[in-house]
Specification:
The protein has helices at residues 16-26, 36-40, 55-77, 91-99, 114-122, 134-144, 159-171; strands at 5-10, 30-34, 81-85, 105-110, 150-152. With 172 residues, it is of the alpha/beta class. InterPro entries: P-loop_NTPase. It comes from Candidatus Pullilachnospira gallistercoris.
Length: 172
């Protein structure tokens, strides 16, 4: 089977980590690449994104995207299927897709309802929503993110059902 390159995005608590892990487990010789790992590597001087991010926060975000793309392509070129998972909002999605240009990227955008995101957020150990509401972020994400790739409303699906739909979409 030929190796594949998936990019999964969506708002926080949309199911990216769970779906990406399950998808990677279904692929032969695969890697689940969590872009956020590069943010977490910064020990001192990290500036996180916010509603009104600093220039440094945006610079660090784009560094994270570049490191993710370079790592993904290195694994892909070595014969691995790669499932990239991170937050790519608005024009940042085009930025990331350009970093992967020339490769067969299978883009998946998880888009559950704000109500489902709120419920999922309650059950998480980490808090992704500070400084803005779930509704604000979901609305901005849907309004500003380019309509490219496979958008899936996974509100009423189990993670396994979402993976099945993704595989059906890209194998068909």
């Amino acid at each position: 089977m030929k190796n594949q390159l998936f990019l999964i995005t969506g708002v926080m608590a949309s199911g990216k980590s769970t779906v990406a892990q399950l998808l990677a487990e279904r692929l032969e010789k695969s890697v689940h690449l969590r872009g956020d790992i590069f943010r977490k590597m910064i020990v001192s001087g990290r500036e996180d994104m916010s509603e009104d991010p600093s220039e440094e926060a945006v610079s660090q975000l784009h560094l994270r995207y570049r490191l993710t793309a370079e790592t993904a392509l290195a694994y892909f070129d070595q014969g691995f299927s790669v499932v990239i998972q991170d937050n790519y909002y608005g024009e940042d999605l085009n930025y990331m897709m350009n970093l992967l240009k020339g490769y067969p990227v299978q883009l998946v955008v998880l888009c559950p309802s704000p109500e489902v995101v709120k419920e999922r957020e309650k059950g998480r150990k980490k808090t992704g929503y500070s400084g803005f509401s779930v509704e604000q972020l979901c609305d901005a994400f849907r309004r500003e993110t380019p309509r490219i790739g496979f958008w899936i409303d996974n509100s009423l699906q189990t993670p396994q059902e979402t993976v099945e739909e993704i595989l059906e979409c890209f194998e068909g």
